[in-house]
Design brief:
single chain
Length: 190
């Protein structure tokens, strides 16, 4: 069973949802808590990393310290060629809304490629939806699959002109393939 393709902004059934359901074999469990993915933050002022990949918006308050180019990332057990992504702001508080940020991807968690760049994007506004959720298309010139994804806030990139990154309920949509782990790559000795 594959994750379903993107249809609308609060769509269930993306790649992270699919992983959280044991690739379609179990009830949903937070994939960070189940050790099915790893969420990391450049810093954390409030919340828990699990909130970045949770599906329940209520009471989610994950944000970084106000440091330039703060980020939150997820490492997945599969590689994804994304077509769309979705994320939410914190529940109930329309402050520090993202305006300028990038979605980046990496093969190894070290070298990052910008997939989408947003400048003064007003998708996340207190009028947009009661849950402050947005979805964006990812356009890539050629299909590439990545296991690491990172959201990075640009300097003074939120509505309060700080560097605090507030994000939760992150989801990816796209094609999936098995991940090639570095230790699985055969080494040829000459």
């Amino acid at each position: 069973m594959e994750p379903k393709s993107f249809e609308f902004s609060w769509d269930a059934g993306g790649v992270i949802d699919w992983i959280a359901r044991g690739y379609g074999t179990r009830e949903w469990r937070n994939p960070h808590d189940a050790n099915d993915c790893v969420v990391r933050c450049s810093s954390m002022r409030e919340g828990q990393p699990r909130m970045f990949v949770d599906r329940i918006f209520k009471d989610q308050v994950l944000y970084t310290n106000s440091e330039p180019f703060s980020w939150i990332q997820v490492e997945l057990p599969v590689a994804v060629c994304p077509t769309h992504y979705r994320m939410s702001h914190r529940a109930g508080v329309p402050k520090y809304l993202l305006r300028s940020w990038a979605l980046c991807a990496s093969y190894d968690g070290e070298d990052w490629r910008v997939l989408c760049q947003h400048s003064n994007d007003k998708t996340l506004t207190d009028e947009s939806h009661e849950t402050l959720t947005g979805a964006w298309e990812v356009r890539m010139p050629k299909p590439e699959f990545y296991p690491y994804f990172r959201v990075v806030i640009f300097e003074n990139g939120n509505t309060d002109r700080t560097n605090a990154l507030v994000a939760s309920c992150f989801e990816l949509f796209g094609k999936v393939r098995h991940r090639v782990w570095p230790e699985d790559v055969p080494i040829t000795i000459a």
